[in-house]
Design goal:
transmembrane; globular; 10 helices; Growth Hormone, Chain: A; 226 residues; mainly alpha
C-alpha cells in the first residue's frame, strides 16, 4: 500500500514542472489532478468481486502492472495531447481503484480474527507513509534524473514489487507452499471463530447505533475534510 500511494503522489509534485513545460492553465491542472478519480470510482466498485473471482494475488499484481505502466507513460502522454494525458490518468485510476478492495479480501484470509484490526492498521500506515515518502523523495529524484526519469523510477519500483509479490504471496494461505502447518491451523481456526452458524447480517439501524461505526465516520471526516 505504501507503493500504491507513493505512485499516486508523484503526479501531485510533478504537475508543477509539467504545467510550466506545457503551458497548462490552472483549471486544466485541476482536471488532470482529478482525472484519475474518474477511473478510480468505477474500479473500486468491482475490485472485491474481481479479487473473489480471480484471486487477490493476480488482481493486485495486474493492478500494479497497469498503474506502473500508466506512471511510466505519463510524461509521454503529456507531450502528446490533453486527451492522451487524461486517458492515461484514467487508466491509472482504474488500476489503483482495486487496491483497497483487493487488500480487504486478502487480509481476512491470511490473518485470524483477533489480528485483523492490527493488520488493517499497519496496511493503512503503509498507505499514508507512501504519501510522506513520495512528497519528500520525488523532488530529490527529479533533480537528479529529470522529470521523465522520476516517473520511470516509480514505475520500475512497481514492477520490482510485482516480481516479489508473485513469488511470495498466494491468494489463500491454503495454497502457500512456505507457510508452516501450525501457522495455517491458527489462521483457519481464526476464520472458523468468526463464522457463527445461523447468524444474520445486522440492519443499518444496528450498524449506525454502534460507537465503533461513528468513530470510523468521524475519523474519516476529520481525515478527508478537516
Amino acid at each position: 500500500m505504501l507503493l500504491c500511494n507513493a505512485s499516486r503522489v508523484v503526479m501531485s509534485v510533478a504537475v508543477v514542472p509539467l504545467a510550466a513545460q506545457h503551458g497548462w492553465s490552472s483549471s486544466f491542472v485541476g482536471i488532470v489532478q482529478s482525472s484519475y478519480l474518474w477511473g478510480y470510482v468505477l474500479s473500486s466498485m468491482v475490485g472485491e468481486a474481481l479479487a473473489d473471482r480471480y484471486g487477490g494475488k493476480k488482481v493486485m499484481a495486474g493492478a500494479a502492472a497497469l498503474w506502473s505502466l500508466a506512471t511510466f507513460l505519463t510524461p509521454w502522454a503529456a507531450s502528446q495531447s490533453a486527451i492522451t494525458l487524461l486517458a492515461i490518468r484514467v487508466l491509472f485510476g482504474l488500476a489503483q481503484g482495486v487496491a483497497f478492495p483487493t487488500m480487504s479480501t486478502l487480509l481476512p484470509k491470511w490473518f485470524p480474527t483477533h489480528e485483523r484490526a492490527t493488520t488493517v492498521g499497519l496496511s493503512m500506515v503503509g498507505f499514508h507513509l507512501g504519501n510522506v515518502v513520495s512528497f519528500l523523495a520525488t523532488p530529490i529524484i527529479m533533480s537528479h534524473i529529470g522529470l521523465a526519469g522520476t516517473f520511470a523510477f516509480f514505475a520500475s519500483l512497481g514492477y520490482l514489487w510485482i516480481s516479489v509479490w508473485l513469488l511470495n504471496v498466494e491468494s489463500d494461505p491454503i495454497d502457500s507452499r512456505t507457510i508452516r502447518k501450525s501457522e495455517l491451523q491458527l489462521i483457519l481456526a481464526g476464520r472458523s471463530k468468526s463464522k457463527v452458524k445461523g447468524s444474520k447480517s445486522p440492519s443499518l439501524r444496528q450498524v449506525f447505533s454502534t460507537m465503533e461505526m461513528w468513530a470510523i465516520i468521524i475519523a474519516n471526516v476529520i481525515n478527508k475534510w478537516v
